[in-house]
Design brief:
With 167 residues, the protein is mainly beta. The chain is built from three helices and twelve strands. The strands form two sheets. Strands 3, 4, 5, 6, 7, 8, 9, 10, 11 and 12 form a ten-stranded antiparallel beta sheet that branches. The chain has a two-stranded antiparallel ribbon with strand order 1-2. A hairpin with an 8-residue loop joins strand 7 and strand 8. The longest helix is centred in the middle third of the chain and has 7 residues.
């Protein structure tokens, strides 16, 4: 599938790389198809590219890359929606907001995006444990987890749709 995006020009991805968000994401309930795009110069950040609305892409960051003690729990309904089985490891992403003053960049730890890569299913949940807010200053949260020289979140070094890069 080929489509033209605002940030990346023409992207070509295989249909099986598309992640389905049955309920959309918060604020965008009617847009259900996304893919993850990485750019080597942007690692460890990824882009959650909307396929339904190609001019939309969200900067996301795998939460374990900077906060290895992040706590969340999926409800039984969320586990069922995402079709998780015991051996599945969720990909947990935080939406990043980057204002003109990059020192004020924030991450949303209250509403992470959770993806089951095996099933290509995703949703945005509200983490109700009371530990997190929608806006945490990234510079105050960042705790690098990957060792120097390692790829973050298993990303390839080539720019491409990476919905399956962690396998």
């Amino acid at each position: 599938m080929k489509f033209t995006t605002r940030h990346f020009g023409v992207l070509e991805i295989e249909e099986d790389k598309i992640i389905s968000f049955p309920s959309g994401i918060i604020g965008f309930p009617r847009h259900n198809k996304f893919c993850l795009v990485n750019r080597p110069e942007s690692l460890p950040y990824f882009w959650l590219q909307c396929v339904d609305q190609p001019e939309w892409a969200f900067v996301v960051l795998p939460i374990p890359v900077f906060k290895d003690d992040y706590q969340f729990r999926l409800s039984p309904a969320e586990i069922e929606l995402l079709k998780f089985v015991n051996e599945d490891i969720p990909l947990i992403l935080s939406v990043v907001v980057i204002p003109p003053d990059i020192n004020q960049a924030t991450v949303n730890l209250l509403a992470p995006i959770v993806i089951n890569e095996r099933e290509r299913m995703g949703t945005q949940i509200i983490n109700e444990n009371g530990l997190y807010r929608a806006r945490h200053l990234l510079k105050e949260e960042i705790k690098p987890v990957a060792k120097e020289g390692e790829d973050h979140a298993g990303a390839d070094k080539k720019e491409k749709a990476v919905c399956d890069s962690r396998r």
